[in-house]
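PROTEIN DESIGN WORKSHEET
SECTION A - STRUCTURE
LENGTH: 263
TOKENS:
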């Protein structure tokens, strides 16, 4: 019998390449499904309670698992919440790309802003940030290294410089200044509910239209080039860079977590 088992093991070894993926696949699928369920729970609670008030215990209870299960995937609350927010950002980016692709004027910056706002309000977690839950935004900011933001801002500078070269926005303002002012506008919108009472806040429709009109009047020239589709490609490239940044960050954290878990 021992000889038979040894021969069987040798036979499986010779045929390992086609068999190993199917043997590992169920465990991999189960892990991925569990991870998605945990991210769903984290997203629900972030929208409901915010970043600071939500705990690992809360997420475990919402997902119907033990707390230790979460630590099989992420080392702490910050990593879990960052993963949940990045996943929603990816979904938001895909929705935004679809909206821009379907718009004949989607390459124009004020249309990008309009679709960005509409895609934001279609995503519960991203919308929660804009609708007054600055706690989520502040919590997320604290999990990133300065190098991440420097790269993100640099990519934005490149995007605006490309729009200038294409004649889609005015050229007399440095791209870095445009990045700074638009970032300040976005951060201001996120934090404005901390200052303004609900009766003094515009509706989401009014906010979208107002920001779009402001960008159109401030940055876009009176005479635009006939061909504006290049703007769509430029913005797609920017979104791809942001996605690569987030993916690279997740890969580093996963590698670090796996290393610590093995040790």
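SECTION B - SEQUENCE
RESIDUE ASSIGNMENT:
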């Amino acid at each position: 019998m021992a000889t038979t088992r040894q021969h069987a093991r040798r036979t499986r070894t010779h045929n390992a390449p086609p068999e190993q993926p199917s043997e590992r696949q169920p465990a991999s699928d189960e892990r991925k499904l569990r991870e998605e369920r945990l991210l769903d729970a984290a997203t629900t609670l972030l929208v409901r309670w915010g970043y600071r008030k939500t705990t690992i215990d809360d997420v475990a209870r919402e997902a119907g698992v033990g707390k230790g299960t979460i630590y099989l995937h992420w080392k702490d609350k910050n990593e879990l919440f960052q993963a949940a927010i990045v996943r929603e950002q990816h979904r938001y980016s895909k929705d935004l790309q679809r909206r821009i692709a379907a718009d004949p004027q989607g390459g124009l910056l004020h249309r990008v802003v309009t679709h960005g706002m509409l895609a934001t309000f279609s995503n519960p977690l991203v919308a929660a940030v804009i609708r007054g839950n600055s706690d989520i935004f502040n919590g997320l900011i604290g999990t990133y290294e300065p190098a991440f933001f420097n790269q993100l801002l640099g990519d934005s500078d490149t995007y605006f410089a490309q729009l200038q070269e294409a004649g889609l926005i005015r050229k007399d303002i440095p791209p870095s200044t445009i990045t700074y002012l638009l970032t300040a506008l976005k951060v201001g919108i996120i934090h404005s509910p901390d200052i303004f009472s609900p009766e003094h806040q515009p509706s989401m429709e009014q906010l979208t239209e107002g920001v779009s009109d402001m960008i159109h009047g401030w940055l876009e020239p009176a005479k635009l080039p006939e061909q504006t589709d290049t703007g769509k490609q430029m913005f797609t490239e920017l979104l791809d860079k942001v996605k690569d940044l987030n993916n690279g960050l997740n890969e580093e954290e996963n590698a670090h977590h796996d290393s610590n878990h093995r040790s």
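SECTION C - NOTES
The chain is about 75% helix and 0% strand.
Residues 1-19 have pLDDT under 50 and may be disordered.
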